[in-house]
Amino acid sequence: MTATIIITICSLLLLAYIFDITSSKTKIPSVILLLVLGWVVKRAAVFFEFPTPDLNPALPILGTIGLILIVLEGSLELELNKSKLPLVAKSSVVALLPMLISVFGLAYTFRYFGDMSFKAALVNAIPLAVISSAIAIPSARNLAKNNREFITYESSLSDIFGVIFFNFIALNDTIGTRSVGHFILELLIILVVSFVATLALAYFLDKIKHHIKFIPIILMIILIYAFSKIYHLPGLIFILLFGLFLGNIDELKGFKFIRRFHPVDFDKEVHKFQELTTEFAFLIRSLFFLLFGFLIETEELLNSGTIFWALGITGGIFVVRAIFLAIFRLPLNPLFYIAPRGLITILLFLSIPVSMQIEIADKSLIIQVIILSALLMMIGLMKHKKHHDKIEDN
Fold first, then answer.
1. What is the pTM of this model?
2. Where are the beta strands (DSSP E) in the chain?
3. Domain range holding 380?
4. For position 117, which CATH number holds?
5. How many structural domains comprise the chain?
6. Residues 184-198: tens digit of each pLDDT
7. What is the predicted pLDDT for the residue at 316?
8. Selection from 97, 77, 63 nearest residue 240 by Cα
9. DSSP alpha helices (H): ranges in 48-144?
């Protein structure tokens, strides 16, 4: 039995690796293939009457660790200097405003068709309005540098804004001056924690001479995030700032304190750390989507009662996206298509308090929106590839 499980997991992860390296050619998002593969494995397990434990509790754990690693992976790749400020500003606005418009528009729609409080409608709308960096960042890997950077910034910030907004709405019984003041205090606390923790972890990364040094750093990052989650602090801000600091220490070498890190040698260590983070992110992301596919029931996927909702929500999200990309004169091809829902959507959906769950926004709706947005991204990437190949031929 143990050998069979090991063989199965290793084979599935090797298939996930094949999906990842071929996605640049096929333009089929690996997440779709992983979900299908997980679903097929579940059907095979049922057919052959293979006993399986309850794996539902593992999903949020894998998802949380995956989210940390993916945001860290993306932030380590980003350049941050004066020339990048317009890009950061645009990606921040495009990450925030369309999300808010989608959330409030969807919340009012939920209330119109169902009997619920506006707060419950908001909480259920937020997961559907957040772009998944877990899918967007890997999918943008083969795009032009400026498009890739925009997607990385936008999707990472969308995750952060989404989590902050979700916690603010879900954890406050009433929204008023006191709750807003408490929210601002939380932001200030996480900024201070991020500053101290970033310098401390960077110091450890520079000073640890033991042959095992990167795993303890990753564990401490996850530990800090977990503690921040217990106290309802937006820990993803820390992850983003830490990655940006490590990846851009060259830009800070003018500061006397930063020169203590020996930036040239430190860059080599950061590069090794980045490679390890990328591999771990791939592993956890693959396990998460395989497991999610495994837990999908066929009737949830083909639920006719939610498919029109899913089509309407997906269409509305992308209409708002097109408007904002046009306002900021950003290229619709391929940026319009790369706004998938995924890991963060599932995590926030699983975090909705039982008292705020509504009948309309069920698991079927979440699954269908994720798949529809991923399919639209696949079509867009294929279209972009054909356009790019045509330009090269000419």
1. 0.86
2. none
3. 2-393
4. 1.20.1530.20
5. 1
6. 888 899 889 888 888
7. 94
8. 77
9. 58-77, 85-113, 118-129, 133-139
